[in-house]
Write the structure tokens for this entry.
Amino acid sequence: MSCGEPHETDCSEVLDHLYEFLDREMPDVDRAKLEVHFHECSPCLEKYGLEQAVKKLVKRCCGHDDVPSDLRSKVMSRIELIRSGEGVPEREVTTAEANAPTPAQD
């Protein structure tokens, strides 16, 4: 995604680090660069707003559940593999597929 305008920080770089920004897991100097970009780029600002809203909704709905300590690192590792093109998301099994009878084996 890009607004087509030149920016000091490229839109793809901003979106690659959006969750780090939302989770406050990046150095202040990098956060400042993204904040400047959001002021200049309405498509990235819109994506930021959407992801922020989803994060708040998940927190409100699931914020009280205990999560295994290694789950976050596993999820982040999987996201990084997918972003880098090294991993492909596993195909989800639909309800119809899960309930379908299996062929009889001879």
Remarks:
- The first helix runs from residue 11 to 16.
- The two ends are 52 Å apart (CA to CA).
- Helices lie at 11-16, 18-22, 28-40, 42-62, 71-84, 95-99.
- Residues 52 and 58 are 10 Å apart (CA to CA).
